[in-house]
Write a structure and sequence with these properties.
Strand order of the largest sheet: 7-8-9-6-10
Distance between the termini: 59 Å
Oligomer: single chain
Shape: elongated
Helix content: 55-70%
Largest sheet: 5 strands, parallel
Radius of gyration: 35 Å
Structural class: mainly alpha
Strand content: 5-15%
Number of helices: 43
């Protein structure tokens, strides 16, 4: 059973016989699109564009659904269309789509045939390539050529067919024997592509091998005249070399590809296995097949070169590697030639001129990759040649590279380019593939594999995940760390990440300087920045966990232009509206932030203000919105707390106490709050000095909240905090103070709550818990519930509902509403307690199934939040 698109479009019938595809043009086009990606999910956007073009009609997504429904009705048995949020996927009876779709099988056979020929097995190559070419029964996608997607795919398959003919011809010439079949096929193909120079070179060789020397020489004259007339160009050096060899009486010494010896290097062979990046590799392979210019962008050490080579090795046809790493970044030399920078960041030669580079040097690198001795005939060499150029390390010569690539793409329709760079080339039609960190599992696997190479028998360690996360999942950093296992333990590596640049200062001696150490990787990117970009990057290091554009503008005094430039150059990531540096880059940038830079104080002030602004909002209807905002800034808030003065730190703790309580973050903040208490005591003096100092500043209540946040339950500081609260005659500034003191230390009489509605409602809850009269407790909780509902505050509402449930003859509806509110807030501890309480009620009511379900859910919630699970 096989689906055929290389000729008339047919699907397998009930007995496996080919039958025409039922349905209208759109159904056939949709099936063809899905078949060419059989087994893989195709996004709705790609399908809409493929069916309707760049200007789809209104309601195109709905129309696509209708076409999918029609397609499902006409699919043969064993085929199905599966939907997921990512798009649609065609599932076939055979698990290997290349067995069930002729176009996919053709691609695989061509790829395998080319590899066999290059490996020195021309006989096997001939068999594979003959089978591949035998799959063609007419023009590719013959019945759906009017579909918007078809033109690019047809051009690609036609190019692959020509590649297959050339590969087959080259293998056949290597084997020798009867040449008449070969001559006939090349003659027919040459009539279709008269200016394809590799093909005409093969035709000349085949004619000479068949003893038809004069005809072979006539082919050269025909091509020479056609090139001069149509393109104003001379034959390529490769074709001229075949001609010269024939004039000397040869015919079998020159390579059938059109060159006696290719000086261009093949793709660099990998020294290690390829780990991870399966999704990125699949996406990049698909994109390279569909687009003429694809740029793989990402920070240094992300593995761009390795991924590009892995993809290139699987692409059928000719693939060439252009290494720009040795090209100087300016006409006076610079980044690309020296590799490392040894602390000379900020040098003028790495400014604008360094980013543009020498166009002559870039052209020479391209020419060398194609086996040419000069740049003059680049366009001529590529004009009739389907080739993929992998252009590596463009960032320091991005201007010159962009100009050359644009020119070549315009002049050479068979050319495709896969570039790697830390910033885009910026050419119209360029498709970008960002490459960031490895997935955690892949990073850990990479570490274990590379570690086992230097420490035989190593199979893993409990702290490998922590180590890889600390290295941002960057492949180069992970590999450098694994190499250090020769002399260090995993614990020493994980504990030493604060000094990562010194720790990872030994790498492959043969690697380019810019990839030899972790510091060199970042220095390379840093040296390519403008002075203003370096200043902004250094200031961005004050942020932890990223920042919004508004925060960057306020703290760093930067507009959107420089910030966008840092994103384009892969120094900063933009995800979900937040700008973030990888920790490795942030650590390097922090070293370059001058002492006393105003960004430090501005960062502390910005996040103190945010904490103060959030405090009252957490007791109203905007509670969830502000919780999410504080979640995003949690790392920045803790950094601001650590860097604040003792007095500002106390005020910050008071403002953030509701957030920490609601989110269950008290364990995470206990250490920085304890450090703050140490600073408070050392500033104010021991014992009575602290009390007097805080009394004078009116910060006694804030000190008490610090004691609670630090998790203290007894001792001198607790006694001092209690004294502050007992001595206070004014209402509490922070409504949570009384509640937290009561639940953590014990009830304290005489504390005055504020007169706002939230405080009054909380006070009613407290009185309800102290009274022994059920009716009075119910009345107090009902009044409190009304107050909390009026405010739209969820935690107080849930707390009042939980109290009322304890007094109700029908507690389950009340508990269900309270649980929903606790879960909406993410208050795991309260949700777990309520689930266990509800389980007990179910059990007492004779409903063991519901009891078990609640206990299982409570255990899962506790485990996810890091709470005890055995209560």
């Amino acid at each position: 059973m096989i689906f055929r698109v290389l000729g008339p479009f047919t699907v397998p019938g009930a007995a496996g016989e080919p039958i025409p595809v039922a349905g209208g043009p759109k159904v056939r086009a949709l099936l063809a699109l899905l078949l060419l990606d059989a087994g893989r999910t195709v996004s709705v956007d790609r399908l809409v564009d493929g069916l309707y073009g760049e200007e789809p009609p209104a309601g195109a997504a709905g129309a696509l659904q209708a076409q999918v429904s029609r397609l499902r009705r006409v699919l043969p048995p064993g085929a199905a269309v599966e939907f997921s949020p990512a798009g649609y996927r065609l599932l076939l009876a055979h698990p290997d789509p290349a067995t069930a779709v002729d176009a996919l099988r053709f691609e695989r056979l061509v790829r395998e045939g080319a590899r066999a020929r290059e490996a020195g097995d021309p006989v096997r190559a001939i068999g594979l390539l003959r089978e591949a070419l035998g799959l063609w029964r007419g023009p590719a996608l013959a019945d759906v050529r009017d579909a918007p997607f078809a033109a690019d795919r047809v051009a690609r398959f036609d190019g692959l067919r020509l590649d297959a003919v050339e590969e087959w011809a080259e293998a056949a010439l290597a084997v020798g024997g009867e040449q008449s079949l070969l001559v006939g096929e090349l003659d027919r193909t040459a009539r279709e592509q008269p200016l394809r120079e590799r093909l005409r070179g093969l035709q000349m060789r085949a004619l000479a091998a068949a003893g038809r020397q004069a005809e072979a020489l006539a082919v050269y004259e025909e091509v020479r005249a056609a090139l001069a007339e149509e393109l104003g160009a001379d034959p390529s050096p490769e074709l001229s070399a075949v001609h010269l060899e024939l004039l000397r009486g040869g015919g079998r010494t020159a390579r059938a590809g059109g060159s006696p010896e290719r000086t261009a290097p093949a793709l660099p062979a990998p020294l290690t296995d390829f780990v991870g990046r399966a999704l990125e590799r699949e996406r990049l392979t698909s994109l390279v097949s569909a687009a003429r210019l694809v740029t793989l962008v990402g920070p240094g050490g992300a593995g761009k070169t390795r991924l590009a080579l892995e993809v290139g090795a699987g692409i059928p046809g000719e693939v060439r590697f252009v290494d720009l790493s040795t090209v100087p970044g300016s006409e006076t030399g610079g980044a690309g030639r020296s590799g490392g920078f040894g602390g000379c960041e900020g040098s003028a030669r790495f400014g604008a001129s360094g980013s543009s580079g020498s166009s002559g040097d870039v052209s020479e690198a391209f020419a060398g990759a194609l086996g040419l001795t000069g740049e003059a005939r680049l366009e001529t060499a590529l004009a009739g040649r389907p080739v993929l150029l992998i252009v590596d390390n463009c960032e320091h010569v991005v201007g010159a590279t962009a100009v050359l690539v644009r020119r070549l793409l315009a002049a050479c329709p068979g050319l495709r380019v896969l570039a790697t760079s830390r910033e885009a080339l910026g050419i119209t039609g360029e498709s970008l593939v960002p490459l960031g960190a490895l997935a955690p599992e892949a990073a850990e696997e990479l570490f274990v594999r590379r570690a086992a190479a230097v420490r035989p028998g190593f199979t893993g360690h409990a702290r490998v995940a922590e180590l890889c996360a600390g290295l941002d999942g960057l492949p180069l950093a992970v590999e450098l760390a694994a190499a250090r296992l020769r002399s260090l333990s995993v614990e020493e590596l994980a504990d030493g990440l604060g000094e990562r640049f010194e720790l990872l200062s030994r790498g492959d001696r043969t690697a380019p300087d810019r990839h030899r150490t972790l510091r060199a990787v970042v220095e390379w990117s840093w040296s390519l920045l403008e002075p203003g970009e370096r200043e902004l990057a250094a200031r961005l290091s004050v942020f932890r966990g990223g920042a919004t554009a508004a925060a960057v503008a306020r703290v760093c005094g930067a507009g959107g232009g420089p910030l966008a430039s840092l994103v384009e150059k892969s120094l900063v990531e933009l995800r979900d509206g937040r700008y973030r540096m990888l920790e490795t880059i942030r650590a390097y940038a922090a070293e370059r932030l001058p002492d006393g830079d105003p960004a430090v104080a501005a960062h502390h002030a910005y996040f103190r203000e945010l904490a103060v602004a959030a405090d009252p909002e957490l007791r109203g209807s905007a509670q969830l919105e502000w919780l999410a905002r504080l979640d995003a800034e949690d790392a920045n808030l803790r950094a601001a707390l650590r860097g604040s003065t003792p007095e500002d730190g106390l005020r910050m703790v008071a403002a953030l106490t509701p957030y920490w309580w609601l989110r269950g973050l008290r364990g995470r903040v206990a250490a920085p709050v304890a450090e703050l208490l140490d600073r408070v005591d050392s500033t104010a003096g021991p014992g009575a000095g602290t009390a007097a100092h805080l009394d004078a500043d009116g910060l006694g209540e804030e000190y008490a909240l610090c004691v609670l946040a630090a998790g203290l339950r007894e001792g001198e500081r607790v006694e001092r905090a209690a004294g502050f609260l007992r001595a206070r005659t004014a209402p509490l500034r922070q409504p949570y103070t009384a509640f937290l003191w009561s639940t953590s230390i014990g009830p304290m009489q005489g504390l005055r709550l504020g007169d706002d509605l939230w405080s009054r409602s909380l006070g009613l809850v407290g009185r309800a818990h102290l009274t022994t009269a059920p009716a009075e407790a119910e009345a107090l909780l009902t009044e409190a519930l009304t107050g909390f509902r009026t405010l739209g505050e969820r935690w107080g509402t849930a707390t009042a509902l939980e109290g009322l449930a304890a007094l109700s003859a029908d507690p389950l509806p009340l508990l269900a509403e309270a649980l929903a509110l606790f879960e909406a807030l993410g208050v795991a501890e309260d949700a777990v307690d309520l689930l266990r309480r509800r389980a007990a009620i179910h059990e007492a009511a004779g409903d063991p199934e519901s009891a078990v379900a609640d206990r299982v859910r409570a255990t899962a919630t506790a485990r996810q939040a890091g709470l005890p699970t055995d209560r």
